[in-house]
Automatic annotation (TrEMBL):
It comes from the Bacteria. It comes from Microtetraspora malaysiensis. InterPro entries: DUF72, UPF0759_sf. This is DUF72 domain-containing protein. Pfam families: DUF72.
């Protein structure tokens, strides 16, 4: 996400070498979704560059490759998993969680495969699972079985809240595209671990996005008061202003809990000059 085209020269300096773009993004936000790893395991040198551009406290939530989650459906992927974990090793403590996003067809009858896969993972990492099968949201028994499988290894259930997106018909091309691709499931906001992770997508208009995240402001404040350490990712269909919105969300939480540390000052989008 730190190479998003619409941010270059507007929110982030442009031009910037590829090896400096994450460093600039990290002055806006202190966490990032590692989404590109879903499509292919990157070169280890690229991961070393990510580590070099961020402080040890920066949070990466890294998605497992689709060869493991979607093609092999968590079965018989030991070699691919070992290669992926070895490649991610340079991130060290920056790997906040490894993100197991499962396809919409992965339902309650597949929980045995998930439980076995989770039991076989090294305990050196934290894990978080995102499910999209409707039964996990509509059927209490299926939800309980999933929670038990996750609790057995202290893994988190990542909610992807799309309720604001689907609250009214789309009004932009990006929203229309999101309507065809994003899961339409009920909101879920129960934390299983001390490190809950939330993915929230609003609308392309700021007012709709801000209106829709009120529930999460309340929830995150409650989690923080309980001593949890949540990570929240704010999206819109076009993501044009996502870093600005993420900082606004953080500021609204700090209005309720001033002891929460502020985010760093963003790097100027224009190059600094001597005159």
């Amino acid at each position: 996400m730190w190479t998003h085209a619409s941010w270059q020269g507007r929110l982030l300096p442009h031009p910037l070498p590829a090896g400096e773009r994450l460093r600039a993004y990290a002055t806006w936000c202190n966490a990032v979704e590692g989404n590109t790893t879903f499509y292919a395991t990157p070169a280890r040198s690229a991961v070393e560059s990510w580590a070099g551009q961020t402080d040890p406290g920066f949070r990466f939530v890294i998605k497992l490759p689709k060869t493991i989650t979607h093609e092999r459906r968590l079965t018989g992927a030991d070699e691919e998993l070992r290669a992926f974990l070895d490649t991610m090793e340079p991130l060290g403590p920056r790997t906040h969680a490894l993100w197991i996003q499962l396809p919409g067809s992965f339902g309650p009858t597949d929980l045995g495969a998930l439980a076995g896969f989770l039991r076989g993972l090294p305990r050196s990492h934290r894990y978080a699972v995102e499910v999209r099968h409707r039964a996990f949201f509509d059927d209490a028994r299926s939800a309980r079985f999933l929670e038990r499988a996750l609790a057995a290894v202290d893994a988190e259930w990542i909610p992807f809240d799309t309720t604001a997106l689907f609250q009214r018909p789309p009004t932009s091309d990006a929203e229309r595209d999101a309507w065809t691709k994003k899961p339409r499931v009920p909101r879920r906001s129960s934390a299983l671990t001390e490190h809950p992770i939330v993915r929230y997508i609003g609308r392309d208009d700021t007012a709709g996005t801000v209106e829709g995240w009120g529930h999460w402001i309340d929830t995150v404040v409650e989690w923080l008061r309980e001593g949890r350490s949540p990570t929240v990712f704010v999206h819109t269909p076009d993501n044009a202003d996502a870093p600005v919105l993420a900082r606004r969300f953080h500021d609204e939480v700090r209005e309720r809990l001033p002891e929460v540390e502020p985010l760093p000052e963003p790097m100027p989008s224009e190059p600094l000059t001597l005159f």
